[in-house]
Amino acid sequence: MSDDDESVLYVMTHGLESPERCATPFFLASTAAAMDLETGIYFTMNGPQLLKKGVAEEMGPKGDDGQKLAFFIDQALECGVSLYVCQPSLDLNDLEPEDLIDGVKMIGGAAFNGMAMEASAVVTF
């Protein structure tokens, strides 16, 4: 994220336990990216569960009804949204980097703090 342009950073802390929250950060991030804002989503705590290969095709905000999470993730990636994951949160969820979907970048606490300080807005879910 750059302080030269307007940017928004979404922070996703919820995972499989809250399917009703899973699509909103991707939807909002896609919208922000379409508005030409530099946009990223940072997954921490239980958030990395949503990035595990195969999960997004099986769950969605309305359970078996409506769009699956994969739709919202694909839309965000197509719009240029960057996906970041917290390494300690992978450990918390017994995940390895190779367990995640393609396109996810690993960052540490210092990188996240830098992005948060440079962002025009930080929104947490």
TrEMBL record:
Q: What is this protein called?
A: DsrE/DsrF/DrsH-like family protein
Q: Where is the signal peptide?
A: none
* Record InterPro entries: DsrEFH-like, Sulphur_relay_DsrE/F-like
Q: Which organism is it from?
A: Paraconexibacter antarcticus
Q: Which Gene3D superfamilies match?
A: DsrEFH-like (3.40.1260.10)
Domain of life of the native organism? Bacteria
